[in-house]
Sequence to fold (323 residues):
Amino acid sequence: MSGFPTHLLSMDDLDVAAIGEVLRVADSFAEVGRRANPKVPTLRGRTVATLFFEDSTRTRMSFETAAKRMSADVLSFAPGSSSVNKGESLRDTVETVQAIGMDAVIIRHASSGVPAQVARWVDHCAVINAGDGCHQHPTQALLDVFTVRQVLGGGDDGLARFRGLRVTIVGDVRHSRVARSQVAAYAALGAEVTLVGPATLLPPSLEGWPVAAAGHDLDAVLATTEVLSLLRLQGERGSGTFVPSLREYTASFGLTARRAARLAPGTPILHPGPIVRGVEIAAEVADLPAARITDQVRNGVAVRMAVLFLLLGQGRHDGAARG
Ligand code: ASP
Fold:
């Protein structure tokens, strides 16, 4: 096993070897997911808590399904019905959760940096960032890369296929933790990333963004794009005030059927969800075979099983899917 980190807080925690390891272990767990009884005893006796201080549909269900498929006990913390409502601090909540006896804490929070802070407070449990503010959402980037590798193939571990791969990320990059994690993942694998969006929703400076280009003309890059990754306008982070209107946003940056037809046949279209049909993606485009949104969700479970396996250190990946 490579030097897998103690916590998964950011894509920057993972080098190419570690990304490759996640993908290979996820291959085994994807196979488990296809079985009639998709359950393995790998994490029996381990306890995993999900602490979601911000809304989520797929990420929370995905992590909980991943942990349950590995036979872990899962505790689901809902701040709305917890002592947080009585004024308990995040630190006290985390210490309570740790004292109950968790092996991993999966945390989502509207403030950037919270998972890293929690990682400093705990001493014997792994922390996984399931999305913090505009900062990072590493398992989303890992499942995106897994999905792209599945679509494009490429022999051996499939990573060579990413070298020079032209990936276009479209939309509200500025407020997107997904974009930050994706860029780190694709750049680590040698892909050539182009950011496209309105000037107000691109990062004010590209310093620290390992991308090939950033621009405002989606139509100009469609023909050469090999992977198209769309982002949702992050209304909860104020992105609505950065565009004149949704209609104007869609006119310039929405993936309409006309734009989708200009992509090379088979170009994978990705979206982390939740999709807003008619804004960043037309309803009929979301249902095209090239739109891999459902595959992303399915692959998310296998990728999160791999992350839990590697963090909770049950052994080498060859044994991961045993049972
Ligand atoms: N589900 C992703 C996230 O939590 C993307 C989104 O919400 O737009 O960041």
Remarks:
- The two ends are 20 Å apart (CA to CA).
- Residues 131, 137, 177-178, 232, 272-273 surround aspartic acid (CB under 6 Å).
- The beta strands are 47-52, 73-77, 104-109, 126-132, 166-170, 192-196, 213-215, 227-230, 269-270.
